[in-house]
Structure formats: structure tokens, C-alpha cells
Amino acid sequence: MANEEILDTMESKMNKAVEFLRQDLAALRAGRATPALLNKIKVDYYGTPTPINQVANVSVPEPRTIVIQPWEKNMLKVISKAIMTSDLGLNPNTDSSVIRLNLPQLTEDRRKELVKTARKTTEEARVSVRNLRRDAIESIKKAEKAKTITEDDSKEGQTKVQKIHDKVMVEIDKVIEAKEKEIMEV
Q1: Same domain, 96 and 126
Q2: Rounded CA gap, 30 and 74, in Å?
Q3: Alpha-carbon distance 21 to 172, whole Å?
């Protein structure tokens, strides 16, 4: 029983790490426009830092254009300023009711930088998953020492931990591979 609990908890946390990685990589600017680029940018909405998608409609009408339509006119300048001060390096074009973000073509050097950033983020996810594996194995060994599980159950649990770990690592590899391909796509 203790093994199953440990395995379920570990697998759940590992899956969350993969999901977090996906979200982090989605916010990385590849060649294509995506509303996820704006996820990390917060605007001051009546004294509260609020994500742009909670104060405006964000759409992608063309592959290299993001259109932001604030629900309140007074938010145009606030959103525009937040985008300019962000690390995206985009210049918002504002007209009477919408903000347009045109994403320029990425240079080869910038693409390589983005791939390095993506790999660094991925390595952090891998380390997190390895730490979860280590913690789960330690918990199983403690349960064996405390005589709450048998030696066979301990070995079986450790084998299952390793299998789950390997499966999650393959998933992480697929995620980074897809992101690298997307970044390097011209």
C-alpha cells in the first residue's frame, strides 16, 4: 500500500513538472505568434497585477501578428507600456481600440539563443524529475527499514519508480525536441 501511494504521488508531481515545462516553453518566442507569449506579462489593473488575457481579448489573426483588444479603453496605454518594458523586444502598434504586435523574423543567432534557453529550462525540469525519483526511492527504503513493506516490495517499488522516471524523461525529450524544431523553423 505504501509503495502505491509513493508511486502515485511521485508520478503526479513528475507530470506537473512536464506540464510546467510545456507552459514555460510556450512562453518562449519562436517564429510564430501565439497568445502564450504574453502569459508572463502583467498589467496594473486597478492596483492589481493582472495577466493581459484577463483584461483583453488576445487573438492571432496571422502567423506573425498578435492583436490585443482591451475591454476598457483606458487599458490601451497600460498594456502597451507593459509590453514595451517586457523582455519580448516587441513594439506595440496602438490605434483607437486595439494593439497590434508584429513579430519580426528571428535571426539565426537569436534562434540559437532561444534553443539554449529552452534547453536550460528543460534541464531544470529533468533535475526536478530526478529529485522526485530520488525522494521516492528514499521513501521506499525508509518503509523497508521500518518493516512496513518487505524487501521484495521495496525492490519492486524501486523498479517501478525507475520505469515511471524513464517514461517521463522520454516525454520531456519529446517536448524539447518539438520546441527546438519550432524555434529553428524558418
Answers
A1: no
A2: 30
A3: 8
